[in-house]
Amino acid sequence: MEDRRIFSLLNIILFCMPALNARIHHPVTVDTVLFDPKKGVEILEASNFTEVVFNSKFNRVVVFYQATCGTCKKFAPVFQKLSDYCKEWDQLVKFSSVACSNIKNKPICQRFGIVRVPTLLFFHKDFSGKEKPIDIQSGKDVMLGNIARSLANYYQRKQDSLSDWPNLLPLKNDEFRNECKKHPKMFIIITNDQSEKRVGPLAVLNSVKMKNAHVRWMHDYDAQFLKFENHPSLLQTNTDCTETTLLSSKQRNDFNKLIADKVDYKTDNLFAPIDGKIIMEPSKKPVIGKPIIPNGLHEQDLESSLYHTLWQEISRLKHLNASSLNIAKRYIKSLMYVPYRKQVLKFLGEIDSELSEYSTISTDHFTQILEKNLHSKSYVPKRIVWAGCSGSKPEFRGYPCSLWMTFHAMTIGGLNKTDVAQIVRNIRDYVVNFFSCTKCAQNFEKETADLDKSIGKTDKDAVLYLWRIHNHVNERLSKEKDSLVDPRHPKLQFPGKTLCKECRIDDNADTFKEDVVFNFLQDFYGEVISNRASINYGKATNNKASFNTAWFTNILGVIVLLFLTNL
């Protein structure tokens, strides 16, 4: 009888322990998806990519992105708008996305050589994997035209087997009469300037679903028969093809609306602007709450940043050649000056030692080295949880914030131990060569173009150089209209007045006493806040965790006491 009671007691304790542990520690892995499949952008993964894309019924435009990349976050609504514009021709082309920030998608991102993000690739419908997809520039003013051009080029090669497609090729003079006889009251888009060549194919694509409209475009035409002054123009032929009527030569983006009205075609979809320019509605200014002042260097941010750097940024390349591996080695050596836990530092030391044996390496082998050195005394937590770098929404802050924290911690940790200027150079080389965000890497390279001239001669100079660069970046981002900045964490000059009033020369201006700032930076980035046991959805919750822990402990104690008194 007593054995049964003891067994029951153990069961209750075991049942309660997960709940107790859950109250103490809530790690949340960040894997933000930037697109909603319900809105027309399909989410692809390595597990279904081949099945969906290869030898498909549809052509496909795929955006490869990193969820942590600020440029990708800004680009996501543009790509969504692109998908919306093309719904009238969704029987020809679909829009999809691949999150390269999901480590499961690493094979597919490596296969297509995704080095920078966002990257747009066009896969034609009979893509087999033997050829290369078409790289599409991601600029708002060129994407639509490039997609139309890719479809037109594919049609030109395969037109005999694409009887259900509209004719995307320009109509020639000697074809005009026969085409008109087949399709009385044909609509013609006339272009002249080479830069207007996107207009015709886009107008034709917009008319795919209009059963009673036959739309073609012309570039070289008979000026005696087709008389008009402006380009581009929309014309309509009469029933016996002897005359043409000018419908419009003004608002080119209204051409398809005019055609739709003429053939009584109704749709709720947008027509793609045939000038190729994607128009984004002004975003509503978010309500800015009280700025949350970062309260120090969080262990959780540093370790999450390190995991992302090693497993997702450096490892995303297929192969590290001599140059890129040397940059990775130097950066890993610099990381050893960050005040990580001893287990993390041991892990970095073992990686550093093992990589010294290689002059080049595949990233598969690089990842194997990382995995092999994970054990009880040497490890990096394989999860991404933000503490001080958590944003008011998942798409804000995160990795870029943690990377800056890591950079500053490196320079402070290297004081009186190594050449801090070299640490800053290693930081620059890492960002330029491995940071996957295209625009971010380009901007950082511009910001540090004067590094060798301006970094100074002392370690203190190097620390302050990086601090000034960071403030320059913050100033630039604060002025960018489309900058994705957390409204609860506005881009201010650091340190703020609340953190270090003594650092400023003038309370009303962003001018600093650099000697005081240097001392502040040593304090701020020299001491780590350990919050592994108090992370709740990316925020420090020590008090809440303590209260919940005490509550569970008391309940469990009562249960144990009741059982013991009845034994």
Automatic annotation (TrEMBL):
Recorded catalytic reaction(s): these are: 2 R'C(R)SH + O2 = R'C(R)S-S(R)CR' + H2O2
Q: Name one GO cellular component term.
A: Golgi membrane
The residues the entry assigns to the signal sequence are 1-22
Q: Which domain of life is it from?
A: Eukaryota
* GO terms of biological process kind: protein folding
Where do the Thioredoxin domain residues begin and end?
A: 6-164
Q: What class of enzyme is it?
A: oxidoreductase
Question: Domain ERV/ALR sulfhydryl oxidase, which positions?
Answer: 392-493
Give the cofactors, semicolon-separated.
FAD
The record's listing under PROSITE patterns reads: ERV_ALR, THIOREDOXIN_1, THIOREDOXIN_2
UniProt keyword list = Disulfide bond, FAD, Flavoprotein, Glycoprotein, Oxidoreductase, Signal
Q: Which residues form a coiled coil?
A: none
Entry keyword annotation includes GTP-binding: no
Task: Name the EC number(s).
Answer: 1.8.3.2
* Family that this chain belongs to: Belongs to the quiescin-sulfhydryl oxidase (QSOX) family.
**What name is this protein filed under?**
Sulfhydryl oxidase
| Species name | Dimorphilus gyrociliatus
